[in-house]
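call fold target=Fumarylacetoacetase-like C-terminal domain-containing protein
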Amino acid sequence: MAETTPDSAGTTGPVDFTDRAHRPGKVIALHLNYPSRIAQRGRSPKFPGYFLKAGTSIARTGDTIERPAGTELLAYEGEIALVIGQTCRRVRPEDGWSKVSGVTAANDWGLYDLRHADKGSNVKNKSGDGYTPLGPEVIAADRVDPAGLRVRTWVNGELVQEDTTEDLVFPFGRLVADLSQLMTLEEGDVILTGTPAGSSVARPGDVVEVEVDAPGAPGAPSSGRLVTRVVAGEHAMAPYGAQPQVDDTQREEAWGSREAAGLPPVQEAGGGAEESDHYVPATPRPDRTLLTDELRAKIDATAVATITAQLRKKGIDNATIDGVRPTHPGRRILGYAKTLRYVPNREDLFTAHGGGFNAQKRAMDSVQPDDVVVMEARGERGTGTLGDVLALRARVRGAAAVITDGGVRDSAAVAEVGIQVYSNGAHPAVLGRRHVPWEVGGTIACGGTTVQPGDIVIGDDDGVVVVPPSLLEEVVEAAHEQEQQDAWVYDRVAEGHPVDGLFPPNAEWKQKYEQYRASRQRAERP
């Protein structure tokens, strides 16, 4: 590969990677890299995670791939493959791209039916014959910008995947550097760099095509279409090995969504994430049935102070996010907590985790309607933890509010965005002065209280309270009733009654209130 000469179009011509002369010594595949796929998967990678694919899994354009008899979830993943052009060890990230001779199209096929068999290693799931088609042409690396590539996938002529390398979590140079710290990368080795959203299941008879190109480079070089046709296999899995095993979680992940898999929606489906040290769990899906219209109406008519008092009666004193004030006084908030944690700045960690599609951006880019993004900034007011661009992204995604116990920069512009923001004040400094964006979806501390993903967050001008989902209905019902009673007491005080015995009401006044309440209920009956 290193000795080929690119033509005027920027490609080195067709390469048969199945030929033993060109077969890679190693095929190393990356789990997650594209923000779109990360949001879809619901797992946020802290650092690159890899698996190996067998050299015998390599195929050419035009080859077929068999779906074994008795299986159902053979899934395609259009990817960009890096071809190493120079043997290297312990490369720095800024030098990593220089060790790449070219890029080409790849399809990282996987059989979800066997995902359970070698969990983590993906041996049977990912290394079957024909499971790594590459080609047909290689784009010379020195002719393109690694951040200016595009990958597209078609199934039966319909475009199903399209993304660019502009915002990758792990740039290509970093992948080469990371892998070369432990192992020697040899000329001809291939690195599969992750797939964007849109990966799904293919069936026998489907034709899947993948293309990598560089639209902005001179001549717009392209790998050409990498074509694979799916055929039905005649052989089932042998009884002396792992058998196909499929459940709805695997169907959802293979197809890309429950809807695509033909599964009914669920309010709290398991994510099916394979837990490892490579990932921080993203925000668990809260039970979106909790905030019914009836409950919302009662919450909107109830002061945060009253809800806090009822929580105290349940034994929960420390439920308020202290020290934060709203950007838009007079506006209430209500939603499900989506958590984000910053750790104190350390320059090496900020270099590794502060740039690119970092945890802060991932949080805002994966917001769901009715989420309240809650940030742990350790009460540090000496820098901004939110600016107008990310505030706008949260609003566009449907967030109910953003809460930070740190500072906000571009505060006037953030206010103009319109989303309600509670913060510890304004500060002009950028995030990296005091913070490293670290984790999305964990249990955090904000304003002196603990917040977990899916907690119910309620705010008004007095402040913000966090209600455990398991207590929500009971607390709100009691607080709403308390609010009605307090309003009745207020009216009695306005009439001139002394507060002694009335606030709180003694037995006599409680009886009067119950009579009032009963008469009101009779009046409201149809």
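return ok
The longest strand covers residues 333-344. The longest helix spans residues 472-494.
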